[in-house]
Every structure is written in structure tokens, then in C-alpha cells.
From TrEMBL:
This is Phosphoribosylglycinamide formyltransferase. Catalyzes the transfer of a formyl group from 10-formyltetrahydrofolate to 5-phospho-ribosyl-glycinamide (GAR), producing 5-phospho-ribosyl-N-formylglycinamide (FGAR) and tetrahydrofolate. Pfam families: Formyl_trans_N. Belongs to the GART family. Its EC number is 2.1.2.2. It comes from Pseudorhizobium tarimense. It catalyses: N(1)-(5-phospho-beta-D-ribosyl)glycinamide + (6R)-10-formyltetrahydrofolate = N(2)-formyl-N(1)-(5-phospho-beta-D-ribosyl)glycinamide + (6S)-5,6,7,8-tetrahydrofolate + H(+). N(1)-(5-phospho-beta-D-ribosyl)glycinamide binds at G12, S13, N14. InterPro entries: Formyl_transf_N, Formyl_transf_N_sf, GART, GART_AS.
Length: 210
């Protein structure tokens, strides 16, 4: 089983769905540690309740971004994860950090990338008059919410939608998509090669129906 570290900043509902998927005997991954940049992240207690070790690295505890990342890299050097899952980790990783774990870091973002990267993504989808929204799991490269796409899932945008209502609808498909995408990556069904996501034909079509 592949060793996974999950990075969170908040409630950790995606982390929890990954942790639950990992409980199945035939799932090809296990969570070795949950790392948070916020001591107040609700996801920490959820991880601990499932017996998963947690580590907190608050940015304010370090002189600068480089020192903060260096501390996390030191922890990762001990844990030796095969895959790093960003799950609501609201901090942009530096190029140096990403190169240290090149092709191993994946992220979930609540939009159909490359549309609406970054913050306020749900409101921006509504303001653009989108009729479909969704979520994307992708390999992490230096740009914010960029990188080769592994899998996507779509939901309708309804006429009366608020950002909160749309976020909740998307979150339900995030919880289906992320475990599927992690399984695919852990089994090697999709790999990052030459800056692209290469999928083995016949493994998984890269979508999770609503
Ligand atoms: C999720 O919707 C995730 O896609 C999003 O933050 C939320 C975290 O929820 N991530 C981003 O916006 C990254 N750019 P969770 O803590 O309950 O998993």
C-alpha cells in the first residue's frame, strides 16, 4: 500500500473521505500522517479519532515561507510518503518544495479547472453564468491550482444558487472523486510524465458521475 500524507487547513472533510476509503482492505493506499498549517483545523480531531498521526506547522512559528516549508520537508523526509494529497490546504507551495516531491503531489480544487483557479471559485462560477460546475483533482505544479488533470466531476449550477449552496453540492462530488483519483494514482493507472498526466487506457475514465 502506498504511503500518503494529507495536507489540510480546515474542516478536513476530503481528508476524512480519503481516510475512510483507506480502511477498505483492497484500497491501495494508507494515510501515514495528516499535516496542518492551522492548529485550529477541524480536520485534526477527525484524523486523530481515526488513529491517524497529525503534525501541525503554523506559518507564524517560522521566520519566513522557506523556513516553514523546510520544517515540513524535514518531517516528510522521515515519513517518506509515496503520495501527498492536498485537501483544502490553503497555502501555495513553492517551486523548491514541489521539486522535492515532483510528480507525487496531488490537489483537489472545487472548480472545473482551468476555469476559476484560486479563491472565491464558487461565486465566480455563478457570476460567470455557468450552468455546470464541479471539481478537479490534478498533479501539483508551481502555479496556483494548475497542473495536469487527473479526474473531474460535474454538477449543475441552479438558478437560485448561492456560493454556499453550490459549494455544498460540489463537496458531495469531491468526496466521491478524490478517493477514486487517489486509487488511480496509487495503482499507477495515471502518472505524471513529461509535464502531462498519462492514463493507462481502460483503468478509469477520469470522471465520477454525480
Ligand atoms: C474543498 O472544497 C476543497 O476542494 C477546497 O477547500 C475545501 C476544503 O474542504 N480547496 C481549495 O479551494 C484549494 N484551492 P475540506 O477541508 O472539508 O476538505
Amino acid at each position: 500500500r502506498k504511503r500518503v500524507v494529507v495536507f489540510i487547513s480546515g474542516g478536513g472533510s476530503n481528508m476524512l473521505t480519503l481516510a475512510k476509503a483507506c480502511q477498505a482492505a483492497d484500497y491501495p493506499a494508507e494515510i501515514s500522517c495528516v499535516i496542518s498549517d492551522k492548529a485550529s483545523a477541524g480536520g485534526l480531531a477527525k484524523a486523530e479519532a481515526m488513529g491517524i498521526p497529525t503534525r501541525v506547522f503554523e506559518r507564524k512559528g517560522y521566520a519566513d515561507k522557506a523556513e516553514h516549508e523546510a520544517a515540513i520537508l524535514t518531517a516528510l523526509a522521515e515519513i517518506k510518503p509515496d503520495i501527498i494529497c492536498l485537501a483544502g490546504y490553503m497555502r501555495l507551495l513553492s517551486g523548491d518544495f514541489i521539486r522535492a516531491h515532483e510528480t507525487r503531489i496531488i490537489n483537489i480544487h472545487p472548480s472545473l479547472l482551468p476555469l476559476f483557479p484560486g479563491l472565491h471559485t464558487h461565486q465566480r462560477a455563478i457570476d460567470a453564468g455557468m450552468k455546470i460546475a464541479g471539481c478537479t483533482v490534478h498533479f501539483v505544479t508551481e502555479g496556483m491550482d494548475e497542473g495536469p488533470i487527473i479526474a473531474q466531476a460535474a454538477v449543475p449550477v441552479l438558478a437560485e444558487d448561492t456560493a454556499e449552496a453550490l459549494a455544498a453540492r460540489i463537496l458531495t462530488v469531491e468526496h466521491k472523486l478524490y478517493p477514486l483519483a487517489l486509487k488511480l494514482v496509487a495503482e499507477g493507472g495515471v502518472r505524471m510524465e513529461g509535464g502531462r498526466a498519462v492514463t493507462t487506457p481502460g483503468t478509469f475514465d477520469g470522471t465520477a458521475a454525480q
